Amino acid sequence: MASGYNIEARFGFWFSQALRTDISYNYINGTYDWSTRFRTGTTPFKAHNQSNVYMANAYFHPGTWLSGNRSIFDPYFGGGLGVACNRLGIAQSNGLLLSGGSVDGTGTTNFAARGRAGILVPLSNCLNLDVNYSIMSLGSFATGSGLNVGSHHQIPFNGFDFGSNTNGSMNLALVFSR
Question: What is the span of the domain harbouring residue 92?
């Protein structure tokens, strides 16, 4: 993603000190730059994306690092499976093919997967700072089949299908636990 944001909410349960699960929702909004993959005339091709991602995740905590009897940090790794509802529209393309127009985005629902590794740093008895790296496969993105020219005109065309998209991000979160 060239620019944008990813908002995530998680709710989970600790089964033991080594295993926890959660369900998560991500709202991803951004502009993607496919300048090196697609060219429309002589200008770069950029598209606006919105994704709603719903996942079930599981994490394994191999052990807590201690200093005396005080926990310093708790590393973990895990992953999740779910669905991604993606919508894509053209944000910018002034090349020959689109003539400065825009393309209606269509919604696609795809299988989604995530891998995540991080550490929990205790701030108090029930509050942890979660520092992690997450990578998600969101499935395919495609544009609609109508080219908008002006406010009331639409020219039909086949649209673009961009195949699979992966989103990686460094994350900071506050986690309330136990």
Answer: 3-176
